[in-house]
Amino acid sequence: MSSLIEIHRAAVRLFARQGYAGTGIRDLGKEAGINSATLYHYAGGKEEILVAIMAACLEGLLDGGRRALDHSADPAVQLVRLVRLHVAMEAVNPLTSYVTDREVRALSAANRARVLGLRDDYESMFQRVLERGERTGRFQIDDLPTTRMALLEMCNGVSNWYHPGGRLSVPEIQDRFADLATRLVGCRSVPPAESGTGLRVARLDSEPLDQHADEEALA
């Protein structure tokens, strides 16, 4: 198990730095400190490694998203908790999130369908919350598809610029993004007690240890 974790961390470092296409199997073995035969034994080929990394990241979002939706029937609360979850995942797992967001096109058809299925399942949570908020009058939305994409892209971007020790902590970024989300859909802010400050997002096994000081963040 430890060898598989090290392989995934090595892969994330390389895929984030030089891209999936620019990374060879020997590069992965060298980065992980093992030979190619051992790498294949523990992790399979390069694409299998990428799929495993992406699936774990998306399944983490799906699990957190389900908890966000189960907490309350209020679409505003659900939206804020989804946003806080996504921000935390991107901040705590920046390289894994970066690779997951950007390397889908490198996959073969079957693997792409699997990963896109997971991503669609997650994004549909935002869709359902926005539809329910609009239907109940909780939200004021002019263009629902554009609003959904704006929310997702806003959250996805955190992995590009967040650094521990920067001007804002993860909880502070979550607070600001939650406020932006409620403004975007035209509803009042959600009380702190309902906004999801008690949930946790852990560092994924694939995330390199040297990327950040924090191993988990409030979601």
UniProtKB/TrEMBL annotation:
Annotated region of DNA binding: 24-43
* Annotated region described as Disordered, given as residue ranges: 192-219
Q: Where is the composition biased (Basic and acidic residues)?
A: 202-219
Entry keyword annotation includes Cell wall biogenesis/degradation: no
According to the entry, every stretch annotated as the HTH tetR-type domain falls at 1-61
Keyword Transcription regulation tagged:
yes
- Supply the alphabetized keyword list: DNA-binding, Transcription, Transcription regulation
Protein name, UniProt field: TetR/AcrR family transcriptional regulator
Q: Which organism is it from?
A: Nonomuraea indica
